[in-house]
Structures are given as structure tokens and as C-alpha cells.
Amino acid sequence: MHRYLIVANQTLASDQLVDLIRERMATGPAEFWLVVPATPVKDLASNAVPIPMPVMGGTLALPHPPEEARRRAQDQLDAAVKKLTAAGVTVNGAVSDPDPMRAVEEAVTSKEFDEIIVSTLPRRLSRWLHQDLPARLQHQFHLPVTHVAAGDV
């Protein structure tokens, strides 16, 4: 049985990721663990919100509390598990630390994996790619890392 760790947030439902999962399943028995970092709402590409200027003498409140990030990540996870399970995939997962490196570290300390799959937004939008996440994961955890970008052809 091959065990795959998928780290994704906004791209969990992408066709590119689903196609890669199907490819992995075609090679033999497989199970997948989804790690969904609770990305702060202000950092989501689809929800970029300008931060208002503070009022004189006032304090600047964050527009979205961390609970909102966790709730959105949980919604993404629930939808992905439902979609993939309906397609015959053995899958589960968890919402994790907003930092994808720490999120993966939490997963690999409690489970064993044969490969890490990183699903990102296209390069022009992806913070994770600008931070060189796939190479950093491979260096840190000594596992094969496959990158798939949503929207790329």
C-alpha cells in the first residue's frame, strides 16, 4: 500500500490534483492523507482584502480572526474528502498549522508516507512556490515531492 501526503488548501478541488491522485491509484493500492494549512484569510488569493487604515487614536483590528481561516480550511477539507471518497479514493486528513512546513512536519511525525504531493496555485499567484516549498519539503523530509499547480496545462 502506497501512502501519499497531500498538502493543499485553495487547490484541493483542482482537476490537476484529482488527475494526479488517479495516476497514483492506477499504480496499485493507495491511501491519501490531506493536510490543509489554515491559511490566513488575508493570504488567500481569491479573498485578498485591502486592510483599512487605522483611525487616529484607534487600533487596527484584523479583518478575519484565525478561527475564520480554520473554518475555511475545514470546509475545503470536508468537500475534498467527500469528492474523493465518492470517486473511490481512500482519503482522510486534517486542518493544520498555517505554515505548510510545520503542517507537513506534524503529519510526518505521526504517520509514514512514500511521497509528498504539493498542490499550489499557478506560479504567478502561489506564495508556496515563491517560498520554494516543494524543494524545502524534499530537503527537510527526504521523501519524493511532486508538485502540481492548479490551472497549469
Beta-strand residue fraction: 15-25%
Here the CATH topology equals Rossmann fold
What distance separates the N and C termini?
Answer: 29 Å
Largest sheet: 5 strands, parallel
The secondary-structure element order is EHEHEHEHHE
Low-confidence stretches: 46-64
What is the CATH class name? Answer: Alpha Beta
Number of helices: 5
What number is the mean pLDDT?
Answer: 85
The helicity comes to: 25-40%
CATH architecture: 3-Layer(aba) Sandwich
Secondary structure layout plus pairing:
Elements: E1 2-7, H1 15-26, E2 30-37, H2 66-86, E3 91-96, H3 100-110, E4 115-120, H4 127-130, H5 133-141, E5 145-149
Parallel strand pairs: 1-2, 1-4, 2-3, 4-5
Helix pairs in contact: 3-5
Describe the structure.
This protein is of the alpha/beta class. It has a single domain (2-45, 61-149), classed as 3-Layer(aba) Sandwich (Rossmann fold), CATH 3.40.50. The chain has 5 helices and 5 strands, in the order E-H-E-H-E-H-E-H-H-E. The protein has helices at 15-26, 66-86, 100-110, 127-130, 133-141, and strands at 2-7, 30-37, 91-96, 115-120, 145-149. Helix 3 (100-110) packs parallel to helix 5. It is globular, with a radius of gyration of 16 Å.
Short description:
The chain has 153 residues and is an alpha/beta fold.
